[in-house]
Specification:
heterodimer, A: mainly alpha, MetI-like fold, 2 domains, 82% helix, B: Rossmann fold, six-stranded mixed β-sheet, four-stranded antiparallel β-sheet, 7 helices
């Protein structure tokens, strides 16, 4: 209760000071708009449906890329865990991919796929496939041996063992990979969208720049941060917390 | 005489490491008969847990035969269930579902799985805890769940690998009494691995002492004293002396490199 009050006061103060600086300093709105005009931009964006469409298109794009990345990553992860020779060759190579920021893939993606959705989805997959691959590999390698033996001694084997023990034992580590992959996918989405046409958060952001509509630019940046925060922390964060609690890992 | 339930014939076990191969067990021969409660007593690293691993079917003998009902043991099976020192309960299942786990496999599949599991959970005195999660329980309770889980599939042989090793002294003694009571009730062949002489003296019909490097059977001793036993019993004291004698002998001549 007290914390909520302090938080509200903080934001009210922040916006008031911001508004005052803009008004008293006569700062032009294409450099720094007042908070009120950003709220206005949000309002009209949602009333006309422009922002709504942008957000939905972006979410569809990122979800397609994300789930494709999960499929690919889990398969590669299992292969890396099972075949040592793959791990020391291909496995090491994909580790190097991790140090390449998503935006570095944009020129390549644009040449291969044009300024289309496919280019963005390609970049998302490249970025998001890594964390889930690594966590799948680690999860498989770190299954407690005694849990498998306990299951075997009770007569579990084959499919029953996989479904009821191996996959379940992998869950906590996998969840971490899923969350990280999502965070990477979200960042890659925005980077890619800045360069392509059609509806989307990144495109709306870029459009704001070309129209010198700084309110729209800041509105989109806020949207990116807000959706990212809600999905990464609230959604995945709470799942991860619950799983760790149930698995007794806290 | 009837056929032995478990038989070791000239068993050797070598663990191959990265740098060298290590002989863990050498020329192990013994028979265990139906309804015997046998304690395998030895210091840490003597290979006593390896014996259980061979019977459970997790590992294979390097040479020799490990027989169960006169047949070679090839893989783990619910006819020989193992109870682990660290319980190895499935944390994602509640207590009842842990006990029911073995009953969900193809071999045991039946309709009244949960009732049967509850029956075994009640047997170890935890019927009221069926919906609790694993990490809500104390160590002693976890091990009771693990024992119920191992008994639920109605094994012919129950293997226990230092099951009370992680428990405090008081809980440990309560659990020993509990196990003794359970075993007279359920009538199983039991192999119990421990490094505690007193634990072996309290529970065992027969004690196999393992020791040395590589591990060998140093003593095979039958205790014909009615259970429950009084630890200060004269006869028991003399058995204890024999056991201690055997247990500490190998350490003395190990340094002499015999």
């Amino acid at each position: 209760m007290k914390i909520t009050f302090i938080r509200i006061t903080f934001f009210v103060l922040l916006f008031s000071i911001w508004q005052m600086i803009v008004k008293l300093g006569h700062i032009p709105s294409y450099i720094l708009p007042a908070p009120f005009s950003i709220f206005e931009s949000f309002y009209y964006g949602f009333v006309t449906g422009n922002y709504t469409i942008a957000i939905i298109s972006s979410l569809v794009r990122v979800l397609i890329g994300y789930f494709m990345a999960l499929g690919i990553g889990i398969i590669i992860g299992i292969l890396l865990a099972r075949y040592y020779i793959l791990d020391v060759t291909f496995g090491r190579t994909i580790l190097a991919l991790q140090s390449i920021p998503s935006v570095a893939w944009v020129p390549l993606a644009l040449l291969w796929f044009g300024i289309t959705d496919s280019a963005v989805i390609f970049i998302i997959i490249l970025e998001a496939v890594l964390p889930v691959t690594l966590s799948t590999k680690n999860a498989m390698k770190n299954i407690p041996q005694n849990l498998i033996r306990a299951a075997q001694t009770l007569g579990s084997r084959g499919l029953h063992l996989y479904q009821n023990v191996i996959i379940k034992a992998m869950v906590p580590e996998l969840i971490t990979g899923l969350r990280l992959s999502w965070a990477f996918a979200w960042r890659a989405l925005i980077a890619g969208e800045l360069f392509i046409s059609g509806a989307g958060i990144g495109q709306t952001l870029e459009l704001g720049r070309s129209l010198a509509d700084m309110s729209q630019v800041i509105a989109m940046i806020t949207t990116i941060g807000l959706i990212g925060f809600l999905t990464e922390n609230l959604f995945f964060g709470s799942i991860e917390k619950r799983v760790r609690l149930i698995w007794g890992l806290t | 005489m009837t056929n032995p339930k478990i038989e070791f014939k000239d068993v050797n076990k070598i663990f191959s490491g990265n740098t060298k191969n290590e002989l863990i067990l050498q020329d192990i021969n013994f028979q265990i008969y139906t309804n015997e409660f046998v304690c395998i007593l030895g210091a840490s690293g003597s290979g006593k847990s390896t014996i259980l691993g061979l019977i459970a079917g997790f590992i294979k003998a390097t040479s020799g035969n490990v027989l169960f009902n006169s047949k070679d043991i090839t893989r783990p099976d619910s006819s020989r269930t193992l109870v682990f020192q660290d319980y190895a309960l499935f944390p994602w299942l509640n207590i009842l579902d842990n006990v029911a786990f073995g009953l969900t496999t193809k071999k045991h599949k039946q309709n009244n799985v949960r009732e049967k599991a509850l029956e075994y959970l009640t047997l170890v005195g935890l019927g009221n805890y069926k919906n609790h999660s694993v990490n809500q329980l104390s160590g002693g309770m976890k091990q009771r769940v693990a024992i119920a889980r191992a008994l639920a599939v109605d094994p012919e042989v129950l293997l226990l690998d230092e099951p009370f090793g992680a428990l405090d002294q008081q809980t440990r003694e309560a659990m020993q009494t509990e196990l003794s009571r359970l075993m007279t009730k359920t009538k199983k062949t039991v192999l119990f691995v421990t490094h505690s002489v007193d634990e072996a003296l309290k529970l065992a019909d027969r004690i196999l002492v393992i020791g040395g490097k590589p591990g060998k059977i140093l003593l095979d001793y039958k205790i014909d004293i009615q259970k429950p036993r009084d630890p200060s019993n004269n006869q028991l004291t003399s058995v204890r002396n024999i056991l201690l004698d055997k247990l500490f002998q190998p350490e003395l001549f190990m340094g002499a490199d015999i």
